[in-house]
Amino acid sequence: TDACLSEVEASGALNAFVHNTPDLAREQAKAADARIKSGDTPDMCGIPLGIKDLFCTKGVPSQAASRILEGFKPEYESTVTQKLWDEGAVMLGKLNMDEFAMGSSNETSTYGNAVNPWRRDNDNTQLTPGGSSGGSASAVSADLCLAATGTDTGGSIRQPAAFTGIVGLKPTYGRCSRWGTVAFASSLDQAGPMTKTVRDAAIMLKAIAGHDMKDSTSADLTVPDFEAALTGDIRGKKIGIPREYHMDGMPGEIEALWKQGADMLRDAGAEIVDISLPHTKYALPAYYVIAPAEASSNLARYDGVRFGHRAKLSQGDGVNEMYEKTRAEGFGDEVKRRVMVGTYVLSAGFYDAYYNRARKVRTLIKRDFEQVFDDGVDAILTPATPSAAFGLGEMNDADPVKMYLNDVFTVTVNLAGLPGISVPAGLDKQGLPLGLQLIGQPWKEADLLAQAEVLE
Ligand code: GLN
C-alpha cells in the first residue's frame, strides 16, 4: 500500500486518480495485516485498489466525474466496493472517468482527461487511455494500483483495457449488483474488474459478484470459484469467428492479431468455426438510442435539490430557473447531448419510431447470439476495438458519431447482456497495445476466463 501510495502521489501527469484517500488506505492496510496475521486471508485481503468515481464510497467524494455532483459524499457504500472492503481490500482513491460514464476517451470528465501511460514509438503525442473507465485503465497499466473497478455500459471496461494493455472483464448482466453505482443506462450497466492478468480478474470477480437484495436485477445464482476454472484446458471448446466483425477499413494488423488469437485457441485444442451474427450492423444505432433514453430518465434526479451542485440564483428565480441553471452549469456537453437525444426518442411522437424500434433491434441482436450458442458455440472471438489508442483531442471535432464508432465491437455484448473480456493481444506497428475480445454464454464467466488465459 505504501509503495502504491507513493506511485499515486507521483502520477499527477496521468490524471488517473482524482481523489486520493491515503489515510483510509493505511488504516485498511493495517487492518488487513492484522487479519492476515490472525490466519484469516480472503483473496483480496490487503490488495491496494483504485475505484472508479462512478461507485459511491461512503464519506468519500463520489462525483461520477461530473460538476453536478460537486461536494457529494455518499452516506452509503456501493455493494461492489463493500464486498471488496469486506474481503480486506484497500482503497487508494477514486479514479477518473468520462462524465457519468458517457464517452470513449475520458475527455468528458470534469477533472480533465486521464492520460494513457503508453506512447507511440518515436512520437510523444499524449494518447487517450480510452473510456469511460480511462482512469482505471491508466492506473492499472502504470502500476499505480494492483487492480481497479470499472463499469461497462457499452464497452467502458473492455475498450480502455485494450487501449492500455490490461485485462478488462464485463460480467453477465446481473452478475454484480448495481446498487450504489451511479446509474447511466440501467439495463446495460455492469461493474467488473480491470486487472493486469486474467487470473487477477478471476479472483476479483469472485469477490464482487453475487446476489444482492438491494438490486432486483442481480441474479440469485451461486458464484463459482472462477480461479479454480483456470485449468488451461479448453480442449473441445468451439470458438466462433463472426463474419460481420471483419469491418471495412480495419487495419491489417488487427486482422492479423485476431487470426493469431484464433490460432492460439486452436493450438490449445479448441475448434474454430465461422459464424454469422447478422444484425451486428444495427447494434451501434440501437445502443445510441437505448442508452441515452435510459440516461435521460436516470439523470432527471440531478435537479439542484437532492445532490451536489446548485447554481447561484437571481432575485425572482423560481424552481424552474433553479433546475435550468443548475443543469446548464452542472452537466457537460456530451451529457446534455445524451439527455436531449434520450428525451427526444422517448417523446410521445417519436417513441415508436426510435425507442421501440431500438428495443426490437436489441431483441434481434440477442437472438443472433442465442442462435450461435444453440448451435454449440461456446465463445466468440473478435477484436476489442477497431483501432489502437488515439491522440487526445483527435476525435473531438464536430461529429460525435466518430467517437461512437469506437464502440462497434463492444456494444453488442451489453445489448445482449453477455459476459465479455478484453485481453492484451500484442502491439501494433507503432508499439501500441491492442486487445482481443472473447464473448461468452450467459453466466459462463468461468469458461470465458479459462479461454482468455490461453490468449495471454
Ligand atoms: N462509449 C460508450 C458510451 O459513451 C460506452 C460507455 C460505457 O460503457 N459506460 O456510451
From TrEMBL:
Uppermost EC category: ligase
Active site (record annotation): K52, S132, S156
Coiled coil: none
Residues annotated as signal peptide: none
GO cellular component, one term: glutamyl-tRNA(Gln) amidotransferase complex
Ranges for region Disordered: 109-135
KW Ligase (keyword) present: yes
Catalytic activity: L-glutamyl-tRNA(Gln) + L-glutamine + ATP + H2O = L-glutaminyl-tRNA(Gln) + L-glutamate + ADP + phosphate + H(+)
Amidase domain ranges (all copies): 1-449
Pfam families per UniProt: Amidase (PF01425)
Record-level GO BP terms: translation
GO terms assigned for molecular function: ATP binding; glutaminyl-tRNA synthase (glutamine-hydrolyzing) activity; transferase activity
Keyword list, A-Z: ATP-binding, Ligase, Nucleotide-binding, Protein biosynthesis, Transferase
EC assignment: 6.3.5.7
Keyword Protein biosynthesis: yes
HAMAP family: GatA
Subunit structure: Heterotrimer of A, B and C subunits.
Function according to Swiss-Prot or TrEMBL: Allows the formation of correctly charged Gln-tRNA(Gln) through the transamidation of misacylated Glu-tRNA(Gln) in organisms which lack glutaminyl-tRNA synthetase. The reaction takes place in the presence of glutamine and ATP through an activated gamma-phospho-Glu-tRNA(Gln).
NCBIfam families: gatA
Family under the similarity heading: Belongs to the amidase family. GatA subfamily.
Name by which UniProt lists this protein: Glutamyl-tRNA(Gln) amidotransferase subunit A
Species assigned in the record: Qingshengfaniella alkalisoli
Designated gene of the protein: gatA
